[in-house]
Amino acid sequence: MCGIVGYIGDRSAVEVLISGLRKLEYRGYDSAGLATISPNSKELLRIRAKGKLNNLEKKLIDDPSHKDAKIGIGHTRWATHGKPEEHNAHPHTNSTGSLAVVQNGIIENYHALRVDLKYLGHEFISETDTEVIPHLISEFLRGNTLLEAVRLAVGKLQGAFAIAVLSADYPDELIVVRQQAPLVIGIGKNENFFASDTPALISYTNVIMALENGEIGRITRSGVEIYNFNGDRQKRGMQTLSWNPVMVEKQGFRHYMLKEIHEQPGVIRAGLAKFVNEKNEINLGLDAKLNLQDLTNIQILACGTSWHAALVGKYLLEQLVGIPTTVNYASEYRYAAPPIMPNTLVIGVTQSGETADTLAALELARSRGDRTLGITNRPESSIGRLADQVLDTQAGIEIGVAATKTFVAQLLMFYLLTLELGKSRRSLTTEAISTIIEGLRQLPAQIERILESQERYIENLAHRFSHARDVIYLGRGINFPIALEGALKLKEISYIHAEAYPAGEMKHGPIALLDENMPVIAIATPGQVYEKVLSNAQEAKARDAQLIGVAPMSDPVAVETFDHILPIPIVDEILSPILTVIPLQLFAYHIAAHRGLDVDQPRNLAKSVTVE
Ligand code: M6R
């Protein structure tokens, strides 16, 4: 969580910092702040504001002192230690105000350091863990360069963090540190940048240099030096990103989330084009050292929406390939991993590639000797360096905090992985594989049909239910994870309480909640459990619940059963999750938009959860 950004060069530092922070605001928006060095007085200047970036921008209008600065650091905060108030906003400074620090992450031993520093006469203004850092660095500055002082200070810090340091005494350099929290350096011509995430850089440069964990960077306008924590100089190459700045704009949509919902057909087409040839042969390019032939089980690690994608993956891997598969909350696996088993493949699923729990769980699996595979749309992220191999889902960057297109892309990867394993382990015939691939190829057009012909209807229905207090979602089999995902989407962006149950479980307790005020959304797609779900829906109807079905409009039984239908085309049950999730995303989106909520940046959430 939190976003940090920095610039040195000939441009207006404030412009670069604000533009970068705008792209990083998805990481937290409790407060924002920046520090620059005045080119005239050579003083360090700082400005901070509680709340969203707009508040900082308004303050900057009344405070032109930063406007000529050519060097600076900025921060957007997701509060961990200390309330979201201005005095806790970053940057934090040392006692003289000559040195400023921004941080993303947590300094776990900050309390002990604070006690020691107070004893040495340092005064603290905030309740944050970060504030110890500028004080600590200033202790080490006596007789040392800024780089060396930062290196010595970092040696005292425990936790996972990325930090950036600006000092009035070193007005031509920025020092950055990466320790288990993301940080990337952007390379320009006579100018350089850094940020927690590449979208903040892409308007200025697509050439990046990755800092590894345990490294310190010294950035000047003409170059970058990288050192490890022992002070040894490190060699580092550059990477060129294939993105363009337009990809991180809203492109006429009211919200990023809506744009990303509409990008889903393209995401599936891109995934199929990348991994499947015209003869319906799949090639994921999986490394031979993953030794997939002798796998006896798979463990999947993920959080949130990625965890829901993993549940669909488990269904596919077990039902179509017969490999025992467990899906673990990464945060639980870290402290209660299952017993070590030979021939285990551990798959980490994460859209951001930076979720602290997922990375730590995957690292644990690696340390136990398991083979590891990552599934992500951000192969350049931390999971790309951690897993033995990563599969790029081809979804590209997602900005809306509520995951949509990245979920569908993760699902597609699980279908392809299942089919590839099914082929190599001979659990699926070539014909069966071809039939499923042909079905996958139909999905983009089917999603387009939902978006084109049903969105207005779904929007109207969403308005009717926008005052609901609670909503129950039901699904069975391969669509139970979609019920979970529909409920999560609604909770996250509309703040309406929602719960999902396997439809058959409702009668074992949740049915007591039903009355005429409770909307129940049931996913009913023709297949193995269709009649069962319709019966469960009838049980809800008999208790006066308002029944909404995600179902094919063409089935008269569904039309008769449900009060309202979120329609989907008829599709093979095994492929249905990629379609059934679409109306649920739209339903949640239109409820939240109708309620006038901040769809892309819901309260208390952040796109990358980089703290434990
Ligand atoms: O980046 P990750 O996929 O690892 O993120 C996991 C969850 O934090 C994430 O899916 C979260 O639940 C989203 N806000 C879902 O919309």
- DSSP E strands, number: 25
Q: CATH class of the largest domain, anyone?
A: Alpha Beta
Shape: globular
Q: What is the CATH topology classification name of the largest domain?
A: Glutamine Phosphoribosylpyrophosphate, subunit 1, domain 1
Strand order of the largest sheet: 3-2-4-1-10-9-11-15
Tally of separate domains: 3
How far is the N terminus from the C terminus? 10 Å
What does this structure look like?
This protein is an alpha/beta fold and 612 residues long. It has three domains: 245 residues, Glutamine Phosphoribosylpyrophosphate, subunit 1, domain 1 (4-Layer Sandwich); 180 residues, Rossmann fold (3-Layer(aba) Sandwich); 159 residues, 3-Layer(aba) Sandwich (Rossmann fold), CATH 3.40.50.10490. The chain contains 17 helices and 25 strands. Helix 4 packs across helix 5, helix 8 runs parallel beside helix 12 and helix 14 runs parallel beside helix 17. It is globular. The site of 5-amino-5-deoxy-1-O-phosphono-D-mannitol (M6R) has 15 residues, from helix 8.
Notable characteristics:
612 residues; alpha/beta; Glutamine Phosphoribosylpyrophosphate, subunit 1, domain 1; Rossmann fold; 8-stranded antiparallel β-sheet; 7-stranded antiparallel β-sheet; 17 helices; 25 strands; 22% strand; globular
